[in-house]
């Protein structure tokens, strides 16, 4: 894809709220905002998929991109991994976490053969536990880290909250901007 206009199009459709820009540090206020946004993700996805039929749900959010169904299952996959990473970092000293092939995960039968409301329910349950955990973390906890072998970097938990606050909204907006483009 050499056409800059097309490239810009792809960027806007892929990252409708922009790419993740990490915060340099955290404050109590920021944490509150990030946790609040993670808390609202399940309801946000209820809203994203409301009244869509099977054909609409099977539409890619952009040309060559995931279908709405794959996006929702991906959010469940991604946030399950995140939740487990957080628990590992809370209970072990700077554990090495396991990256995963998210594109391949989105093509496995539990994505292609399972209705997406199963994953929406999963996201509701998962976020209930995840948010309840995050609400109790102390300043010391937020500074705990895990090691990401892909990036070769240590990630503190406050950065996870920062990142996943973006991640949920990022995928929700992919669906919402498709809906608005299609007039759904
Ligand atoms: Ni993602």
CATH secondary-structure class of one domain: Mainly Alpha
Strand fraction equals: under 5%
What's the helix-strand series? HHHHHHHHEEH
Question: What radius of gyration results from the CA coordinates?
Answer: 17 Å
What number is the mean pLDDT? 95
| Helix coverage percent | 55-70%
Q: DSSP helix count?
A: 9
The CATH architecture category of one domain equals: Up-down Bundle
Q: Give the termini separation.
A: 29 Å
Largest sheet: 2 strands, antiparallel
What strand order characterises the main sheet?
1-2
> What structural class is derived from the secondary structure elements?
mainly alpha
Q: What's the overall geometry? A: globular
Unreliable stretches (pLDDT < 50, length at least 5) are: none
CATH fold topology of one domain? Four Helix Bundle (Hemerythrin (Met), subunit A)
Looking at CATH, the homologous superfamily of one domain is dinb family like domain
Oligomer: single chain
Report the count of strand segments. Answer: 2
Written account of the structure:
By secondary structure, the protein is mainly α. It has a domain of 124 residues: Up-down Bundle (Four Helix Bundle (Hemerythrin (Met), subunit A)). Helices cover 65% and strands 4% of the residues. Strand 1 and strand 2 form a beta hairpin. The protein is globular and about 45 Å long.
Write a brief structural summary.
The protein has helices at about 5-15, 30-50, 55, 70-90, 100-105, 110, 115-135, 140, 155-180; strands at about 145-150, 155. With about 180 residues, it is mainly alpha-helical.
């Amino acid at each position: 894809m050499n056409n800059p206009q097309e490239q810009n199009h792809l960027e806007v459709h892929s990252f409708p709220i922009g790419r993740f820009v990490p915060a340099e540090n955290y404050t109590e206020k920021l944490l509150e905002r990030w946790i609040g946004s993670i808390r609202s993700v399940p309801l946000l996805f209820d809203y994203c998929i409301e009244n869509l039929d099977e054909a609409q749900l099977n539409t890619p959010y952009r040309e060559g991109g995931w279908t709405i169904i794959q996006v929702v299952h991906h959010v469940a996959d991604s946030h399950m991994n995140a939740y487990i990473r957080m628990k590992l970092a809370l209970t072990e000293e700077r554990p090495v976490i396991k990256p995963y092939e998210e594109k391949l995960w989105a093509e496995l039968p539990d994505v292609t053969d399972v209705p997406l409301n199963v994953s929406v329910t999963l996201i509701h349950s998962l976020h209930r536990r995840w948010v309840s955990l995050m609400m109790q973390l102390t300043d010391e906890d937020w500074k705990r880290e895990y090691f990401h072998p892909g990036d070769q970097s240590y990630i503190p938990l406050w950065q996870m909250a920062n990142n996943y606050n973006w991640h949920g909204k990022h995928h929700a907006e992919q669906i919402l901007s498709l809906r608005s483009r299609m007039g759904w």
